[in-house]
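Exercise 3.2. Students should predict the tertiary structure of the chain below and write it as structure tokens, then compare their answer with the key that follows.

Predict this chain's 3D structure.
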Amino acid sequence: MSYQRNKGTAKGRGRVKNWIFIMATVIIVAGIGATAFGVMKDKDPMTRYLTAEQNTIEKQMTFLESQSEQMEELEEKMTESAYHSSSTVTADFNVEDGAQSFGAMLPMIKGMVSSAKLETEQMVDPGTKETFMALDLLFQGQSLGNAEIYQNESQAALKVPFLYEDYFTLPNDQLGEFLRKHGEEAAGMEELPNLAEYQSATLTADELDEIAKDYTTTLIKELDKDQFEMENGVRYENAKYDKVTLSLSEQESKDLIKVLLNKLKNDDRIWDLVETQMKLNMAAGDVEDGKTAVEELENEVDNIQMPDGFKLEAYLDGDLVAYRDINFTISHAEAEESAAISLRTNYEEKDEAYTSKVAMDVVPSGEDGTFSFRLDENGEKSGDALHVDHDISFSMEEEGQTSTIGVTLSSVLEGASTETTFDIVMDGAAFAGGPVPELSGYINTASELDEDKANQNLDVGLDFAMEDPMIGPVSGMVEFNIITDTEFTNALDFPDLTETGTVNVMETSDQEMESIMQEIEMNLQKYYMDMFGNFGGLGAF
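Answer key:
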């Protein structure tokens, strides 16, 4: 598949800002996450609002779900089934402006990159928790170096064939001991994570949906119909809507946050996932540390001050939420400064098109350190394709100067393929100290799943341009292509460590390891002497 992209063009506030983030996150979830419970039959304001929330989210998701079914099916199959895959990675690059600064090296580097490729092989069996990975870096068809990794439930093994013929093995539960043996701090890395478990260490879409509904149920149980008011035919943004207002006092807001934090603290589904991810990423600490942190937040809620309470205004267009306005002011009992937080959303649809906008502003009382977030999304169906444009930006204003970083994306989703172009924007005071690159590019994907076989193609390109004060304008591009073929099968030929040469690094003496390292050094010298001889010296590059 080919696709031609277009070139694009605080001091002392840490504690307050942490609470701003926590409160904003919780309130946003409370304000726009209650989407699953339009189940009551009367039409009181609370029910009318919740029903419209559900409909609005479902309407927008309908546009996207129809374009992602096959990709989701492939991802789900790879988390549940044993498979063998092979990939080929190639790259290319070019320097346009500023090429003279590289001199005669540029053609040589370009030739090396375009003549090189990385081949990989992977076998994963979630049932037996076995993983095999191999990679080989090739230049003009000849191997520059290769390596293999194998892991089962009890041990991991590494082999670098061009350096040493045997596998080096380490029991999974002896990583910390191995590090300490060699004078290193384990820092929580006591055990090697099982690579096969990465495949299943996430929540499925159904599990995420269940959790969302569960928290929404908890949220709704804490709300009362008397907290909602409705006005019909209210003019807003040059049109008339039915306006629903949710008003919570300071104490009601605190109580709601406490309930949600308490539920999080005792939610084994979340903590089981956190524990798994910590083990897989060899992170320091444990789940109890996380639960303690949540409990401390829960206890600290009483120190939050929200003098104006919390207000959500929803403007309903029939059974949809056209606009939402959320506003509250927050401070901490021990902080001098407060912050006003506002969140505004807009959703409109017509025929086969929709527009969704989110604007969030955090304005400290000192008027320094203002933070803004903007997300504009426009989607339109055309036949079997969905065209979606995104404009995302983050802005921070300090000492009267604004800095912005953002990205614009334009995507076409059709079947199991996507074509996306992007432009990255970096502007303002934070980037005034030196040359700022102009970055743009494309990401194209194509997937095909046919029963027990799959093919995936990924193309990534990045264009860059900047004005260097020393050499003038510099511009160029980098491109990558990754092709992956996958077969789902239980007939996987994993290495049998009982029938091949191994070196257990925990049982091998220092003298034996020194002898092995000397052999590896000799093999390395011989390998590259032979290789460069075959290439005719560096001149062949």
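Discussion points: Residues 1-42, 537-541 have pLDDT under 50 and may be disordered. The first helix runs from residue 14 to 32.
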